[in-house]
Amino acid sequence: MEKIVDCHGLSKTYRAGTIALDGLDFSVEKGAIHELVGRNGAGKTTLMKCLFNLIRPTSGTVSVFGHPAGQMAHNVGGLIEMSAFYKHLSGRQNLALFAGYFGVDDAECGRILELVGLANRAGDKASRYSLGMKQRLGIAIALLGKPELLILDEPINGLDPRAITEIRDLMRTLRESGTTILLSSHLLGEIEQVCDAHRPRGRQTCGYWHARAASSTVQRSGSIRVAGGGSG
After folding, report:
1. Contact 210, 200 (CB under 8 A)
2. CA 192 to chain centre
3. Which H/E stretch holds residue 140?
4. Rounded to whole angstroms, how far apart are CA atoms 114 and 26?
5. Which helix (H) or strand (E) is 161 found in, with range?
6. pLDDT tens by residue, 11-43
């Protein structure tokens, strides 16, 4: 399978001396849902920020679509830590605003709102949205421009069971449309229902990190398991 994310020896130590990543080897194969599951502080968000070039690793290499992180931003959409939008604007207005920022045709907004299940509430102010709806609006913003890779940090955190089911269904729909997905969570019992099998791949030594992905093989080193997977 084609690798669209490839990390080798990735380490990140913050100024206070906290080791977030330690010699991580990690890959994401095209056409699958990949999941990083672990406790808070295990390094999941740090890895995702490295993929977006939002932070620089202390050592190691990161490539996305065969290029250094940040150079293929038009192919990657993401939601890191929290949804960012304007509460006084409607869902449709928020999406149209970000479409303008990203240079995306405004006509794309209707399709995306339908895809994430917000079409019927698109005219409501975002301040009136439930937490699950706010998460879907954040995902909608991340989907602008039809990214090939979607990176979502804790997309089901704090959601009720119904909202979690809706997010899971959306992830499956996106995978079927050809989008590769990397998402994180500390809720193994919920997030594992999105994928069919798993394969840890790589190593990590700071905290506990269990990763899953569709169709995979297993390797383990240290106290964290890291997975990448494909559809075959």
Report:
1. yes
2. 15
3. helix 131-142
4. 34
5. helix 161-176
6. 999 988 888 888 888 888 888 888 887 777 788
How many CB atoms neighbour CB 19 within 10 A? 16
Residue type, 30: K
In angstroms, the CA 136 to CA 231 distance is: 25
Task: List CB contacts of 129: < 8 A, sequence separation 6 or more.
Answer: 91, 121, 137
- pTM as predicted: 0.81
Instruction: Tell me the two tokens of residue 136.
Output: 């879907």
Q: Token pair 């599951």 is at which residue?
A: 37
Strands (E), the chain: 3-13, 19-29, 33-38, 59-64, 67-68, 76-79, 149-153, 180-185, 209-213
Distance CA 130, CA 95 (A): 17
First to last CA, the chain: 7
Token pair belonging to 106 = 């405004």
Q: Which of 153, 143, 94 is nearest to 115 (CA)?
A: 143
At 4, give phi and psi (nearest 5°).
-105, -15
